[in-house]
Every structure is written in C-alpha cells, then in structure tokens.
Amino acid sequence: MNMKKKIVLGVLLAVIIIAAVGTYMYRHRFDKYEQSQKEQTAGIKAIGKDSRFLVAYFSWPSPDYPDLDATSGASNVVKDGHLYGNTEYVADILSKKLNADLFRIETVRSYPTEPKALLDETKVENASHMRLELKSMVENFSDYDVIFIGYPLWWYDMPKAIYSFLDRYDFSGKTIVLFTTHGGNRFCRTVPTVRKMFPKANVVQGPAIYDREIDKAEQSLDEWLKDNEFIN
Ligand SMILES: Cc1cc2nc3c(=O)[nH]c(=O)nc-3n(C[C@H](O)[C@H](O)[C@H](O)COP(=O)(O)O)c2cc1C
C-alpha cells in the first residue's frame, strides 16, 4: 500500500472512530444521573405487599414537534378514537395494570398547542424557578403508599407542573416511582432532583418510554412491571 492510500485509510478510520465515540457519548451523556440497577431494585424491594398505588401524571398532547436538538417525535396516541398524550397513554396503561387510582395533574393556565410556541414558552418557564397554580389536589393523599409520577421530559427536566405538584404534598415515608416519556434523553437529572427534594422518601426510577416507540409502550411496561415483580 502506498503512502497516500495509508493516509486516506488512516483519516477514514479516525473519522469512523470519532463518529462512533461521539454518538455513544451523546446517547449516554445523562446516564451518570440515572439510578443503578442495584439501587433501583433495592427501592422496589422496599415496597410493601399491601401498598396502595396512585398514578399521577402531566401530559400535553400536541402534534409532531419540529426538531429540538435530538428530540423530535409524535406527542400523541390515538386509541379507540381517543387522543392521548404520550404520558397520559403510559399512565393509563400503568394504572390499569397496577389497579391504581389515576390522577391528571393540570395547570390552571393552559399551554400553546402550536409546537413552536410551546417550545418557546416552556424554554423560558423551565429556566425559571416559578411554580404554577394547579386545577385540583389529590383527595385522600395520605391513603397512598406508592405514587407513580409521570411526565414528558421538557428541556432536559420535569415540566413546572410536576415541580408544582411535588411542592404540594409531603412524600416522607412514601415511595415515588418516576416514569417519563421522552425524545431520547430519558430521565436526565430528574431522579436525583426528586431525591434531593424528598430525602425521607423512597425514590425509584421507573420506566422511560421513547416517544418514537410509544406504539410499543404496553409491551415495554409489561416487561418492566414483570421484571420488577409488580405483576406476574
Ligand atoms: C416543550 C418540549 C420540550 C421537550 N424537551 C425534551 C427534552 O429535553 N428531551 C427529550 O428527550 N424530549 C423532549 N421533548 C419530547 C417529549 O418529552 C416527548 O415527546 C414526550 O413523549 C411528550 O409527552 P406528552 O405527549 O405526554 O406531552 C420535549 C417536548 C416538548 C413539547
């Protein structure tokens, strides 16, 4: 092989390696914030057999988003003629499988339905420390031992509706199982964030459903629930 060919081959190889490492680092850049398998399992094992479950969620179904970094995808599911937001859809499945009560977290102020306006508004909102007025409270909150809390990842974080919900209750002594629907970033830092807010709660990282795979949500949830012995 002559020198020129060797250089071309070397450059090509370097480009392939850099691209592969870059892709890996991009996809896994938030993994360090996620709970280890061991921590997850320990948190789930701590749930008592006779626990009462609540599934609470925030969801904002909208049409397909324009590209947002790596995060673009559909934010709704139509099933049996009903339009569900992705998180609403997942929450609905979880509540049925767990035989849990279902609570929709709704803000008094509504959000834009037009994707660009929604992205712009929530970008400003997420960067602030604001809290929002919520439409209703969970009745008999103290009756629940395990609260699944679901949200779409918004700007690498939980929507302010979730922070506002969390601020309203005392989760000490309870188990919080977080679940997300997302465009690729899974939980980002949200699990340690909630842990820090409630050091006396058992905070567990639950299922994360990729928005582009929302049609396979039921299967993934089944697997997660069985693997973690919530159902047989
Ligand atoms: C305002 C906005 C911000 C988003 N930010 C992120 C993000 O930072 N990371 C991510 O993975 N997905 C992001 N997404 C994608 C959503 O998390 C995802 O599509 C989710 O399934 C939407 O759920 P919903 O239909 O219940 O609202 C964003 C979507 C919107 C509308």
Q: Outline of this structure?
A:
38% of the residues lie in helices and 18% in strands. It has helices spanning 3-27, 37-45, 86-98, 115-127, 160-167, 190-197, 217-227; strands at 53-57, 76-79, 82-85, 101-104, 146-152, 175-182, 202-210.
How would you characterize the overall build of this protein?
Helix 3 (86-98) crosses helix 7. The chain folds into 2 domains: 1-33; 35-227, 3-Layer(aba) Sandwich (Rossmann fold). The chain has helices spanning 3-27, 37-45, 86-98, 115-127, 160-167, 190-197, 217-227; strands spanning 53-57, 76-79, 82-85, 101-104, 146-152, 175-182, 202-210. The protein is 38% helix and 18% strand. It starts with a helix and ends in a 5-residue tail after the last helix. The chain is built from 7 helices and 7 strands. The strands form 2 sheets. It has a 5-stranded parallel sheet, sandwiched between helices. The protein has 232 residues and is of the alpha/beta class. Bound molecules: flavin mononucleotide (FMN).
